[in-house]
C-alpha cells in the first residue's frame, strides 16, 4: 500500500520512540552489569533482598511474597512473623487423602505449612466426591495422593508436597514418620488407627486424630505434652463391625470437612507451641494438665462438646514408662479387620450350595418369565434409591423379627407385616422359588439361612447382589 | 428417686432405637446400697437396649470402644463402674468413630 503524505506529528512520535528504545537498551545493559556486581558480593542471596540494594529488612525465614500472601494471618498477634516462619518450616504428615484429609490438607497448605507428606494408596472414585473436596471429576481413577498434590500446588505453589502412594504398614510407618514433626490421622479404619497411634508413640510425634461417620465427628490430640495415646483410651479394639464405615453407614459430606478443618487448626496450634485448650487449663504444670476430646454432632444440640478424657495411663501397653510393646505389631490381626473401609464379603453359605446363583443366571430366570418371588432385604434407605421391579421388600432385621415372632400375635404391628404375610403365604408352594437379593450378597446369605432355619428351603441366594447386577447385567443400574 | 440424664452418641443411639437424650428416674438405693453407675448400666441393658446385648456389654462391663462419661468427664477420672450416682447426673455413652 502506498502511503499518503506522512503527518509531521507521526514522524516526531517515531523519533521519540526510537530515543526511548535506545535509552531502554542502555538501562538494561546497566541493569545486568549491576546484577553481576551484586552477585559477586553475595552469590547465594536473592537479588531483590540483598542488603546492597534492599532498603528494608524482613523477618527471619520469610520473604517478601510470604508477607503479602499471609498478611491477614500475620496481623494476628497469636501468629505474627515468628509464628508464620514456624508454620513455613513445619513438616506435617497427613495419612489419608479422603474426607478428613481433603479439608485438613487444603487449609494446611493455604495457611503456609511448608512441607506436607500425604500417604494414600487409593484412587479417586465418583462416590468420594461429595466429601473429598480436594479431588474432582476429572481426577477419577487417579491416585488420591497425586490428585491432592495437584490441588495443593494450584492453591499454593510454594508448598513442598510429597505424595506417598503406599498403604501405611508396620514395615514402613516409622521410616515415613521420621521425616515429619506432626502426624495427622485422617484414615478410615480401625487397624490403621492403632498402627498410626503406636507409630506416633514410638517415633515420639504428636498425633492429631480425627474421625467422622454419619452425622458425627470426633477429634483428639494424642501423645502430646505427656497426654494419653489412643491405646490409653481404647486398650482393647472393639469387635470388628463392618457396618461402621462410611461405605456402609454413610456420612454427610460436610461432617469430615469440619473435622478436617479442626485437625488443621490443632496442627497449627502445635506448631506454634500453644496450649490446645487454654480456656480449660489454669496452670501449665504437667500434673494439672487436662485432656479433651471434641465431639461434633451435625444435627445435635449442642453441636460441639468438649469432653474431658483420661490422661496417660500408667499401665498403657505402649506409652507407659515400662511398655509391653516396643515395636509395631500386626494390626489387622490385632483388630480382626482389614486396613481399608472396602466392603467385606461374608461366606455364610457353603461355596457349592445348590441354592446359589449368579446375577447372570438370575437374569435368565427373569427373562424366561418363570414364576418366582424376588425378596430384597436391604434397609429402606438403600431400597428407595433403586430396586428391581416386582421386588418384595423386607429389611433383614425385620425379616428376622417377623420370622421369630411368626406364631405370636405382636408381629402384625410391623410396617413390613403385609409384605411378610404375602411372602409366607406363597413361599410354601414348591413351584414358586424365592430369590433373595441385597446390596452385595452378604445380607441375602443371612436371610437364606434364617429362612431355612424356619423350614423354608426353596430360597435362592443371588451372589454379589445388586452390585453384581450393575456390573454384569445392567450398567445403568445405579451403584452406590 | 434421682433424676438421671442419659445421652447416647457417636452411633450408640442406634442401639437404643435412635434416642439421643432421655431423662429417667432411678432409685437412690439399689439392693440395699447407694446406687452405682454399674447398676444403671445393667438397668439400661434390661430396659432400654433395643439391639443385641453384645453390642453394649462384654464381660459384664461396657464393651471396648465405648466411652462412658459422668457429667462430660471420662468415667476413668472418677470411680468407673463403682461411681456413686447423684441426683441430676448426666451419663453419656459415646462410641469411638474410626471412619473418615
TrEMBL record, chain A:
Pathway: tRNA modification; 5-methoxycarbonylmethyl-2-thiouridine-tRNA biosynthesis
Cofactor: Zn(2+)
Pfam families from the UniProt entry: Rhodanese, ThiF
Protein name (record): Rhodanese domain-containing protein
Annotated organism of origin: Smittium simulii
Major location (coarse): cytoplasm
Family: In the N-terminal section; belongs to the HesA/MoeB/ThiF family. UBA4 subfamily.
Ranges in coiled-coil conformation: 10-37
GO MF entry, a single one: ATP binding
Record keyword Zinc present: yes
UniProtKB/TrEMBL annotation, chain B:
Database matches in InterPro entries: Beta-grasp_dom_sf, Mopterin_synth/thiamin_S_b, Urm1
Tree of life domain: Eukaryota
Keywords tagged on the record: Cytoplasm, Isopeptide bond, tRNA processing, Ubl conjugation pathway
Keyword Heme applies: no
Pfam families named in the record: Urm1 (PF09138)
Location(s) in or outside the cell: Cytoplasm
General function of this protein: Acts as a sulfur carrier required for 2-thiolation of mcm(5)S(2)U at tRNA wobble positions of cytosolic tRNA(Lys), tRNA(Glu) and tRNA(Gln). Serves as sulfur donor in tRNA 2-thiolation reaction by being thiocarboxylated (-COSH) at its C-terminus by the MOCS3 homolog UBA4. The sulfur is then transferred to tRNA to form 2-thiolation of mcm(5)S(2)U. Prior mcm(5) tRNA modification by the elongator complex is required for 2-thiolation. Also acts as a ubiquitin-like protein (UBL) that is covalently conjugated via an isopeptide bond to lysine residues of target proteins such as AHP1.
PANTHER family documented for this protein: RURM1 PROTEIN
Protein name as catalogued: Ubiquitin-related modifier 1
Species name: Smittium simulii
Encoding gene, per UniProt annotation: URM1
Amino acid at each position: 500500500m502506498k502511503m499518503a503524505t506522512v503527518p509531521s506529528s507521526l514522524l516526531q512520535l517515531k523519533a521519540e520512540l526510537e530515543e526511548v528504545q535506545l535509552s531502554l537498551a542502555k538501562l538494561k545493559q546497566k541493569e545486568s552489569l549491576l546484577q553481576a556486581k551484586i552477585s559477586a558480593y553475595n552469590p547465594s542471596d536473592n537479588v531483590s533482598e540483598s542488603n546492597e540494594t534492599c532498603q528494608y529488612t524482613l523477618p527471619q525465614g520469610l520473604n517478601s511474597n510470604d508477607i503479602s500472601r499471609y498478611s491477614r494471618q500475620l496481623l494476628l498477634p497469636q501468629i505474627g512473623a515468628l509464628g508464620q516462619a514456624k508454620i513455613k518450616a513445619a513438616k506435617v504428615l497427613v495419612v489419608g487423602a479422603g474426607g478428613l484429609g481433603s479439608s485438613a490438607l487444603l487449609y494446611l497448605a493455604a495457611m503456609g505449612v511448608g512441607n506436607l507428606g500425604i500417604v494414600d494408596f487409593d484412587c479417586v472414585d465418583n462416590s468420594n466426591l461429595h466429601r473429598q473436596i480436594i479431588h474432582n471429576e476429572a481426577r477419577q481413577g487417579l491416585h488420591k495422593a497425586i490428585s491432592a498434590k495437584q490441588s495443593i500446588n494450584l492453591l499454593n505453589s510454594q508448598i513442598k508436597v510429597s505424595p506417598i502412594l503406599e498403604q501405611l504398614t508396620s514395615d514402613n510407618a516409622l521410616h515415613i514418620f521420621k521425616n515429619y514433626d506432626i502426624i495427622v490421622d485422617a484414615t478410615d479404619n480401625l487397624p490403621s488407627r492403632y498402627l498410626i497411634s503406636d507409630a506416633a508413640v514410638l517415633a515420639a510425634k504428636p498425633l492429631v486424630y480425627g474421625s467422622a461417620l454419619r452425622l458425627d465427628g470426633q477429634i483428639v490430640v494424642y501423645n502430646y505434652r505427656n497426654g494419653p495415646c489412643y491405646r490409653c483410651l481404647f486398650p482393647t479394639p472393639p469387635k470388628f463391625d463392618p457396618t461402621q464405615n462410611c461405605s456402609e453407614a454413610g456420612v454427610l459430606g460436610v461432617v469430615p470437612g469440619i473435622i478436617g478443618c479442626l485437625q488443621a487448626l490443632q496442627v497449627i496450634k502445635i506448631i506454634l507451641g500453644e496450649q490446645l485448650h487454654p480456656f480449660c487449663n489454669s496452670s501449665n504444670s504437667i500434673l494439672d494438665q487436662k485432656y479433651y476430646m471434641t465431639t461434633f454432632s451435625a444435627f445435635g444440640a449442642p453441636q460441639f462438646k468438649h469432653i474431658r478424657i483420661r490422661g496417660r495411663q500408667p499401665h498403657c501397653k505402649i506409652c507407659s514408662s515400662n511398655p509391653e510393646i516396643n515395636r509395631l505389631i500386626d494390626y489387622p490381626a490385632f483388630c480382626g479387620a482389614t486396613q481399608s473401609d472396602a466392603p467385606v464379603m461374608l461366606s455364610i453359605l457353603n461355596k457349592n450350595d445348590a441354592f446359589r446363583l449368579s446375577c447372570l443366571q438370575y437374569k435368565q430366570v427373569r427373562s424366561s418369565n418363570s414364576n418366582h418371588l424376588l425378596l430384597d432385604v436391604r434397609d429402606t434407605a438403600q431400597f428407595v434409591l433403586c430396586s428391581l421391579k416386582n421386588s418384595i421388600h423386607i429389611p433383614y432385621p425385620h425379616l428376622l423379627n417377623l420370622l421369630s415372632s411368626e406364631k405370636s400375635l405382636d408381629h402384625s404391628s410391623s410396617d413390613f407385616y403385609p409384605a411378610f404375610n404375602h411372602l409366607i403365604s406363597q413361599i410354601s408352594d414348591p413351584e414358586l422359588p424365592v430369590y433373595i437379593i441385597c446390596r452385595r450378597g452378604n445380607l441375602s446369605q443371612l436371610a437364606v439361612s434364617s429362612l431355612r432355619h424356619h423350614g423354608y428351603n426353596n430360597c435362592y441366594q443371588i451372589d454379589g447382589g445388586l452390585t453384581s447386577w450393575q456390573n454384569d447385567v445392567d450398567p445403568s443400574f445405579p451403584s452406590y | 428417686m434421682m433424676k438421671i440424664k442419659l445421652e447416647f452418641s457417636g452411633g450408640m443411639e442406634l442401639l437404643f432405637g435412635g434416642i439421643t437424650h432421655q431423662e429417667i428416674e432411678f432409685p437412690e438405693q439399689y439392693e440395699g446400697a447407694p446406687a452405682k453407675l454399674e447398676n444403671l448400666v445393667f438397668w439400661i441393658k434390661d430396659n432400654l437396649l433395643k439391639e443385641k446385648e453384645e453390642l453394649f456389654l462384654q464381660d459384664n462391663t461396657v464393651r471396648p470402644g465405648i466411652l462412658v462419661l459422668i457429667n462430660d468427664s471420662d468415667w476413668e477420672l472418677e470411680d468407673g463402674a463403682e461411681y456413686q450416682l447423684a441426683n441430676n447426673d448426666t451419663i453419656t455413652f459415646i462410641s469411638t468413630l474410626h471412619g473418615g
